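In practice, a research group might receive sequence data for several interacting partners and want a quick structural hypothesis before committing to experiments. The following worked case mirrors that situation: the sequences arrive first, and a predicted assembly follows.
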Amino acid sequence: MDMFATILTVLDSTIRLSIPLLLACLAGLYSERAGIFDIGLEGKMLAGAFAAGAAAAVTGSAWMGLGGAVLVAVFLALVHGFASITHRGNQIVSGVAINFIAAGATVILGQAWFSQGGRTPSLGADGRFTAITLPFADALRGVPVIGPLYYEVISGHSLLVYVAFLMVPFTWWVLFRTRFGLRLRAVGENPAAVDTAGISVPWLRYRAVICTGILTGLAGTYLALSMNAGFVKDMTAGRGYIALAALIFAKWKPVPAMFACLLFGFLDALSIRLQGVSLPAVGIVPVQFMQALPYILTVILLAGFIGKAIPPKAGGQPYVKER
Amino acid sequence: MSAPYATLPRWADYGLIPLINLAVAFAVAGLVVLLVGESPIRAAGILIEGAFGRGQNIAYTLYYATSFIFTGLAVAVAFHCGLFNIGGEGQAYVGGLGVAIVCLSLDGTFPWWVNFPLAIVCAAAFGAAWAFIPALLQAKRGSHIVITTIMFNFIAASLMVYLLVGVLKPAGSMAPQTRTFLDGGQLPKLNWLIELFGGTIRSSPFNISFLLALLAAFLVWVLIWRTRLGYEIRTQGHSPKAARYAGIGEARIIVITMLISGALAGMMALNPIMGDQHRVQLDFVTGAGFVGIAVALMGRSHPAGIVPAAILFGVLYQGGAELAFEMPNISRDMIVIIQGLVILFAGALENMFRPQVQALFASISPRSVGVTAAKGEGG
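A structural hypothesis for the assembly, expressed as tokens:
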């Protein structure tokens, strides 16, 4: 039973840790499918988390926090779009710039506005998206296996967790069952063909980066208002990059992206769980190794023991209209 | 790139456009200062005064610039090959390990001028080794080098913490750092160079690795523009297809370029470790690896541009430290914002003002921008 309880705890934290990855990964999906590489997921998420923390602290409302996060993340996404779509700049360089601007600005503004060393004030229950208990969770708790599984793992997360999982089929539907999705994918593969069909390539790509902004804003909100009670300096801790790795791992498809993010979340949960635990034959693994583990595994997975990942064909290339 | 950018005279291309971009970046940074509730003009004054006010300050500025020359060159070499080495931070961090090994084992045996070359080799080797795996994965498996080098930054940070709280820490000490090196692990200062020009210095970290940085800048210029390898690197960066057609081994050139890049980043560790602190401390790189990206973009990946760009960031670091005293709201993180803005405006948006500048040139002197030639009058 103890073993079962441990598994439940690990699965529960797997879900919680994979949500920011999942939202960021889906965010990247829209942008990269439209042919805009986005290394700046990290920065948008961080800025979103700061905006969420700041807005929720000032207004006391989690929903205002969410709105602020989405606004700020969309703004940064539009900066990325302006650089890479309108001015045909290098998309990687632009993304890196956004990461730095977000990393610096969140601390400077946080310190100037709240004077807590770059944090935002700690939030009460109203300012956060707290856990919600799904119907029948308490009633079913006594049922063996399924009951605890439902109660511990599936129920008891914040609203954003369920939104994130709903975004997976929604994204699939948008990309593969709507006209907008077809065009979005086309613009990432062959923008010239889209242009020939009389559809504006820049406008399509701008809409794609706006979708990216909205989702990274949600990811940031989750970090600041659900996982924590406010913004903390550098709280994304490389999650934007891991989300990007998950996206490559999932070959730019929504459902595999979910599984990739759950895998990374599971590894993260496991590494936290195993800190200070003595393993058979190995002994106590150094805590630094466990902290580095998600990054090491990302590299190993990226090394391509997964078959070849083929990115959208026009990804990273600015589109120049023929004249 | 086949994009139809307007042509400009060379001096405008390499001088005017970067200056305009830089000015815009600083204007936006000024807005952030306003947002924080301070006066940008006063802040700029304190910054300049803090960077150049006295001989002491100039020495500090050049000390910081030394680190940025190394990391800027590292990023630039990779740029020439079409690679984006974002891992300078981790490579420099691990390069510090190379310096530590030489200094900790030989500082009591040999004088500094024997240990210095050994430390250079070791720092470069460790930095290169840290770039090797991402390079190999890019070359052989097509893993995106931007992501793998970022991951290696995180891994380097964990590795160095592990070593600094473990084997590298002297017994009985609590601080996560190595013991202080003896005289054999300390580089001589260059303070006399500034005193020569009439500055006065009490103590400063400015040391001879500055000269090494200048030498490295020269050697990078020789490598990229005067050797066969450099030609191959530029060909690969300009057009991988052409490189393949010319029989240049893609995997080989990627790995070699990244090794050089990593070695340059690793050598940055000499400056703070052997030149100033005389021990390896936690986080001694303090973002210099990332500053290298901004420096390389601003310097247009040319050593002649990188050295002044590095000095400018030295000004920001040193002046920024003084600024943080005067205006507590503006901490070191302001540099990170400026860095990001410089990368944005000098890198991603480098062509934003080109059409306007060209229009201006065309109205003054059509010939200078090739307008007349296009109409068929010229040749």
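Before designing any experiment, note the following. Residues 112-141 of chain B form the longest helix (30 residues). The mean pLDDT of chain B is 88.
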